[in-house]
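pasting for the record
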Amino acid sequence: MARGRAAGYDDQRAAILAEAARLFARQGYVATSMNQVADACGLSKASLYHYFRDKYALLTHIAEGHVRRLLALVREVEAECADPVRRLPILITRFVDEYASAQDAHRVLTEDVRFLVEQDRERILGVEREVVAHFSQCIAAARPDLGLQALDKPLAMLLFGMMNWLFTWFKAGQPLDYPDLAPLVAELFLNGVCGLQAPASRLSSAMPAHAA
């Protein structure tokens, strides 16, 4: 009969992933060793291998776990709010809040995914593209005219540019904290979207030829 997992196994795995993400974020995936991860977790190297077979497995679990949490968050908000105009600020606020509590994992996703083999990298980036697609669809539903002019995805990418790199410059508590910053990001983006005029080149290319 197979022996079941010990109590606390999943908690220990989560703690190991958090410590590994912290080390990868601060000193890089390549420069981090399994010995360092074991020391940070207060484990022997042999005990660490009981939970994860190697450093690559840690990287895969960190990156994929983070992006799948983001996808679950999008779906959760969609289930809560059907109105895309109301949903957009909720999505933005929830994502900024999530990044605040997962900065190490997010840095690993943005910087160390390049070390994954193609199959793993494409699977994880595929989930990331799905997250962006949900935002694009929400923007297009809130502003159908922008969707018709194929501006929904570029706007979604601009929004992610704002959110994704907060951790590179923002220092919480000086004087704002993340709960203060999240609505500011939403307000900035939404005010811009609501008042946005499509570039003249987009307008002219969208016009029927006989209208000239």
